[in-house]
Amino acid sequence: QVYLTGRGLNSEWEGDVNIKGPTGRPAVTGRLSVLRGSYNFLGKRFELTEGRIDLDGTYPMKPYLDVTGKARTPEITAIINLTGDLKKPEVKLTSEPTLPSDEILSQLLFGKDVSQITPLQAIELGNALNTMMGNSRYDIFGSTRKMLGVDQLELVQSEENSDESAVSVGKYLGDDLYVELEKGLGDESGKASVTWEVTPNITIDTEMHENSSNGIGLNWKWDY
What we know:
Elements: E1 2-6, E2 9-20, E3 27-41, E4 44-56, E5 64-72, E6 77-85, E7 90-96, H1 101-110, H2 119-132, H3 140-148, E8 152-157, E9 165-174, E10 177-184, E11 191-199, E12 202-209, E13 214-220
Antiparallel strand pairs: 1-2, 2-3, 3-4, 4-5, 5-6, 6-7, 8-9, 9-10, 10-11, 11-12, 12-13
């Protein structure tokens, strides 16, 4: 059992590893294969479907990562592939059916085509594209997320009224507990939600609004 977490990756691995040489400069060779896990990209969870980590014996260690994950929306299945240096892998995004990167991100983030998104959503989409291409210095949302110490920051614009907007902030309090706060410009426009993953197949969702309305839901899923 080998667990690899951090930078959005939460996973369990197995494999054969050989360690030899002096303790101060060991040579580690072998391959690990993913058993299960997920990768959080732009606030969206991709379930890992396959992956490997190769160790070639170099020192300092430079593990090579090759991981594939999938996230489904009503319209597409988004496929993310991480390859290269474990510390800074390259990110490639494809989909079924095949779509360009901006369309894939639009479906993931907003559930709609690029032609249907609002101006605020277009800004967020541009930041998402910059993040995927590694242009982090232009990632306004990413920089603000780091400054606030949160995992997700999103501008939400009402589909009914383009003048009504809200800010949504989310934070993982553990591997299985996620808290999200949303606040709009209008009165009683705020809400808080908590998602608790009881087991890999069962989640409990609760939601509390400023207007005193509350809700709770139990979700069950089966991966096959």
